């Protein structure tokens, strides 16, 4: 009787914890545009990160909401301007919608693109937000190229638009230009860099700690370990099949249990060797630290990100941090985004845009709506005039202006 061959130990361990931001795509080389990132796909990585990190995405969403405000107000004596605020392009989007998308892209990518459309007679004006991930700066640094898939760039599929203030006539007879917003960063000339650039690694940490908790939940919080199986097989294919069957039935989330198959003896010595890890506290601390670092990297505030609601809703702290955010982040971003828009509207439509303003409101109210404006200003230690008709209004009637903007 011939002796059965002895197979080497067959171990299988599969892990789900791969790099969450790894983008495998062909490298595109072209002399027609400046690459955005080493492989020209940095926007894809930034977008993927925003989809996978909870706190990171919440901050980007909130920043865009606060920067876009509650809409625009303008002088009612300028009907053309008021109409444009309500309908900024042929798709029926309001000016607030366009601004919100610009603010979102700028918060996410550090870059945003606005397409301006008119005609030689300046009989109309349309503003269209363009997805920043589809835009690249041309080699002449005077045009923006738009392409549907930058991992497979083909020049004939690209559309070229000049950078503002230059206009170029298109095949449909319209004049078009592109406004490029970008966050300044030393050593970066053609593209901006998002404010949270220093927090990319901690965003990945927060994502991975979330995935670790999900893996534990999928396995009903069972211990990880090594399962030793005694079995007699004739070839490597049978060994692989046995391990795979055992893994599918008992391993739960891949990577939770490692199966080790060895040559069986007369007695079955199959056994499970647990691997105990008492590091839950370390993981929790790591997650909390990463979350805090994300907020800091964004130059944002915890209460405005919904991170402290578990400790109770503190409206006073929310209002205080909103005031700081308004004066340090929101107003400056609003000014940067709206200044070119005002200039374009004035130049094309010939209307006075000095009255065009964004409505900013805090996320919560600390004063009852039945108070009058002068009473609220008095409570805040501001100048007030009980005889002023505007300050005789109740707070419930104020829908367009912040209290501090009424003098």
Helix content: 25-40%
If helices are DSSP runs of H or I spanning 4 or more residues, what is the number of helices? 9
Alpha-beta classification: alpha+beta
The largest sheet is:
4 strands, mixed
What is the spatial order of strands in the main beta sheet?
A: 1-11-10-12
The CA-CA distance between the termini, in Å, is 105 Å
Inertia-based shape:
flat
Q: Mean of the pLDDT scores?
A: 79
Strand content: 5-15%
How many strands?
13
Please mark out the parts with pLDDT under 50 across 5 or more consecutive residues, or reply none: 1-21, 399-407
Q: What series of H and E elements makes up the topology?
A: EHHEHHEEEEEEEHEHEEHHEH
Please compute the radius of gyration using only Cα atoms: 29 Å
Number of domain units: 3
Question: Descriptors for this entry?
Answer:
4-stranded mixed β-sheet; disordered C terminus; 3 domains; 407 residues; 15% strand; disordered N terminus; 35% helix; 9 helices; 4-stranded antiparallel β-sheet; alpha+beta
Characterization of this structure:
This protein is an alpha+beta fold and 407 residues long. It contains nine helices and 13 strands. It has helices at residues 42-52, 54-68, 79-86, 95-109, 200-218, 236-250, 280-297, 315-349, 373-379, and strands at 10-12, 72-73, 111-118, 126-130, 135-137, 143-146, 159-162, 168-169, 175-182, 224-231, 257-263, 271-275, 357-358. Strand 3 and strand 4 form a beta hairpin. The protein starts with 9 loop residues before the first strand and ends in a 28-residue tail after the last helix.
């Amino acid at each position: 009787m011939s002796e059965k061959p002895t197979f080497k130990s067959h171990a299988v361990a599969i892990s789900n914890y791969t790099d969450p931001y790894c983008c495998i795509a062909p490298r595109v080389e072209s002399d027609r545009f400046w690459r955005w990132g080493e492989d020209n796909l940095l926007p894809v990585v930034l977008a993927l990160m925003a989809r996978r990190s909870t706190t990171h995405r919440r901050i980007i969403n909130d920043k865009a909401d606060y920067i876009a405000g509650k809409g625009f107000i303008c002088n009612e004596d300028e009907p053309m301007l008021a109409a444009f605020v309500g309908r900024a392009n042929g798709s029926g989007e309001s000016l607030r919608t366009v601004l919100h998308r610009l603010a979102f892209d700028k918060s996410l990518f550090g870059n945003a693109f606005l397409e301006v459309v008119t005609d030689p007679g300046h009989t109309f004006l349309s503003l269209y937000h363009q997805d920043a991930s589809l835009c690249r700066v041309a080699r002449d640094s005077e045009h923006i190229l738009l392409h549907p898939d930058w991992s497979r760039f083909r020049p004939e599929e690209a559309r070229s638009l000049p950078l503002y203030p230059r206009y170029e006539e298109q095949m449909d007879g319209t004049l078009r230009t592109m406004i490029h917003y970008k966050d300044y960063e030393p050593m970066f000339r053609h593209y901006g860099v998002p404010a949270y650039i220093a927090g990319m690694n901690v965003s990945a940490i927060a994502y991975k700690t979330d995935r670790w908790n999900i893996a534990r939940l999928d396995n009903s919080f069972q211990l990880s370990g090594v399962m030793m199986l005694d079995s007699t097989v004739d070839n490597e294919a049978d060994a692989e099949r046995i391990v795979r069957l055992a893994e599918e039935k008992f391993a739960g989330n891949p990577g939770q249990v490692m199966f080790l198959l060895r040559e069986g003896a007369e007695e079955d010595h199959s056994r499970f060797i647990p691997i105990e890890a008492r590091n839950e506290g370390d993981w929790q601390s790591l997650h909390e630290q990463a979350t805090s670092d994300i907020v800091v990297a964004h130059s944002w505030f915890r209460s405005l990100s919904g991170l402290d609601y578990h400790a109770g809703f503190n409206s006073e702290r929310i209002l205080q941090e909103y005031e700081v955010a308004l004066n340090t982040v929101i107003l400056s971003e609003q000014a940067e985004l709206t200044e070119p828009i005002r200039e374009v509207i004035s130049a094309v439509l010939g209307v006075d845009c000095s009255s065009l303003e964004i409505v900013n409101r805090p996320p919560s109210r600390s004063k009852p709506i039945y108070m009058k404006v002068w009473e609220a200003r008095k409570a805040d230690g501001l100048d007030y005039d009980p005889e002023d008709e505007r300050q005789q209004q109740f707070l419930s009637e104020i829908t367009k202006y912040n209290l501090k903007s009424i003098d």
